[in-house]
Amino acid sequence: MAVRIGFIGVGGIAEHHINTLKKVEHAQITAVFDINQTRSKEVAETYGAKSYESTEQLIDSGEIDALFICTPPFSRSGIEEAAARKGIHLLSEKPVGLHMEEVKIKEQIIRESGIIHSSGYCLRYQDIVAKAKAYLADKQIDLVLSYRLGDMPGVRWWRMMEQSGGQLVEQSTHQLDLIRYLAGEFKEVHAIHEQRSIQKIDPEATAYDVGTVSFVLESGAIGNITSSCLAKYVGRGGVEFYGQDFFLSIDGMTLRIKDDNQDLTEVSEVDFYYEQDKAFVEAVRTNQPSLVLCDYSDAAVTLAVTLAANESAAAGKSITL
């Protein structure tokens, strides 16, 4: 049975998903909508889908079993709720919103609808992450260090705090989500966000360009996650875990584990976008929600931590979750 898939928002990340889904058995792209109708029609023609003129028209079309939501986080009003009420399964790209009150309402409607729901936390699907999770299961983690460094995305909304939420919410959320997945829940955050050079690039920018968050986990482990969008000469994203008897790091696609018995370095051999999209399609096709490694509810928890960090930076004090 083919799973008929629609897309709302057909920018770069959506097209990456579409090309990935072309390799996934049982996946069929049938419908697309973008506020840029020229782009919507181009994508529809390229991939053999139908372009719709509104989100409502697409959701009401009867032509989709599942929906990928790939709009920026500031333009998600009513989409998930409408789809869930129609029984349409959802994969919502990260971040799933910018306001926890709205996301909690969406999450309850999604959960109560009984649909399969997933989110865009693709790094969980790496083979090396599965190995890291198994290794860390019985370890006491004492310290976590994480980073996301790179250049600034070219879209202007990303530079506006009220539209993107800033780098931690929009990008470094991947690393923060890995910390949650591998080391447990966050208890307290204290963030510092500053504008150093971003207004030289865009005088009206409201987002920060350097930021750091110190945190305490429920386990008692402490850590830090540092972000910058000014690092145009280097691109790095990783998480390091330290314990009394081990070291483990995931640096991009490379896993390293060192302890008294081994010094292992392993490079991931999978396309994590493919693994994520395949898992979602199979979950829908076979009604097995357990195939999804990060559902909407889980993504909402990651969002809550990143928004708490924004609150901390604005208030200049620690925030307890």
From TrEMBL:
Domain of life of the organism encoding this protein: Bacteria
InterPro entries, A to Z: Gfo/Idh/MocA-like_OxRdtase_N, Gfo/Idh/MocA_Oxidoreductase, GFO_IDH_MocA-like_dom, NAD(P)-bd_dom_sf
All residue ranges annotated as the GFO/IDH/MocA-like oxidoreductase domain in the record: 156-244
Residues in Gfo/Idh/MocA-like oxidoreductase N-terminal domain copies: 3-118
Gene3D superfamilies: Dihydrodipicolinate Reductase, domain 2 (3.30.360.10), NAD(P)-binding Rossmann-like Domain (3.40.50.720)
Name this protein carries in UniProt: Dehydrogenase
Species lineage: Bacteria, Bacillati, Bacillota, Bacilli, Bacillales
